Amino acid sequence: MLSKLGKSNLLYFFAITLVGIIFRMIWVFKIPNQPVSDFKGYYNLALSIYRGISLYQAGLGWQGMGYPVILGFFFRLIGHAGILTAKGFNVFISACTLVIFYLAIKKMTDRISIVFMAYTILALLPNYIAYNNVLGTEVLFNFFLAGIVAIQVHDIRKLIKYPLLGITIAFAALTKPYFLAYPVVLAVIEWFKVKNLKQTGAMFLVVLLFMAIVIAPWTYRNYLKFGRFIPVSYNSGIVLFINNNDVNAWGGWIPVGRVTPSPELVKAIEAKGSKFGDIKPELEPLYKNEAKRWIMTHPLEFMKLGFMRLKNTFFSGAQDIEKWAMSKLNLSIENFRTLKVFLGISDIIIYCLSVLGFIFVIFNVKTMLASFFKKEKRISYLISVPTINILFFSAIFFVFEGQPRYNFPVLFFLVLSAVLCLESIRIHSFSGWGSQAE
Prior knowledge:
Strand content: under 5%
GO molecular function, one term: pentosyltransferase activity
InterPro entries: LipidA_mod_glycosyltrf_83
Number of strands: 0
Number of domains: 2
Shape: globular
Largest sheet: none
Protein name: Glycosyltransferase RgtA/B/C/D-like domain-containing protein
Membrane topology: Multi-pass membrane protein
Structural class: mainly alpha
Keywords: Cell membrane, Glycosyltransferase, Membrane, Transferase, Transmembrane, Transmembrane helix
Distance between the termini: 23 Å
Helix content: 55-70%
Number of helices: 19
Order of helices and strands: HHHHHHHHHHHHHHHHHHH
Radius of gyration: 22 Å
Oligomer: single chain
């Protein structure tokens, strides 16, 4: 793929990649940041793995195990488990992700203006730089997500492609459990591309099978440890519950103790020898059922909360950078002003990407709906991949929880959508998108 670039384009690719890596390294070395909240938990779990504790004994199960386990084994490989080592792991993974994203974009379109505009934004995007300083799932999950997209859009033998997709999706799901649903997204994108139900069905089943095979050992471990069928983690019930109730007014995380439970929920929890507010694997179905009951009886309020969650995720700027990626700063007044200018520019970038990205989605949903009823009208990956992925992530956030940090895996699709949107504006016609339908 790189060999097909001209000399000047190849030079630009290496230059912008190098600049992106250098910015990531500068941020890690110059911006102090200590792991807090979930990130501190991930780091402590990785330390446990590094020190030799077995995966059965490790306190894993509440969240996806992918990041702390992989980080822990990376610590073993390096022979050092410092915070800076973990950030170095992030920088390496982030650099690899950049190249994979480039390969995916280049396969979806030969228009070099689109390829390099999108790649430049991805390399220099403040969020993608800053999160190398965060010991969380974001950078690793983006690596798996980039791999999934690249594998799907490339012409690989199906006997290799489908199992490889299943394996990669499994690793992504072990990192962020909601990705267990991703084979459906993959199948929808593929169907719009080939309009062959048999081929799409075969791909879906093979991908699902290999995903299940990879995840099965962890699911079995959870069954032995918790006595329940838990494919990856058991936090979905409590997350759904605290985000959908009478007292949640803004669609974000609130302490479970602030929620007023129904008498039925309290009784069911006490029947299991626990009390309301306890977070245990066996209580997950009870919290989840209570949340579902509230959603069914308060559909309008649920819709309001869902709207606020999308707003919190996509239209809150880049406030997550300051909150999660740059703690412990002790700045002079002059440097403080510089910081606020940087954060202001980052806010503008995120707002622009979100606005253009959703405009792109709205226009192309119409195109895809028209294609749904016309067998001969196929939709290229350049249209379906960003559109359907943005819709998928939006649906997850709409139902469960929204905060600026959660837009991280969607930024690639927003960047691609925004660049396509700008390219269409440049040629003075929105019909440029429709030309991607086959």
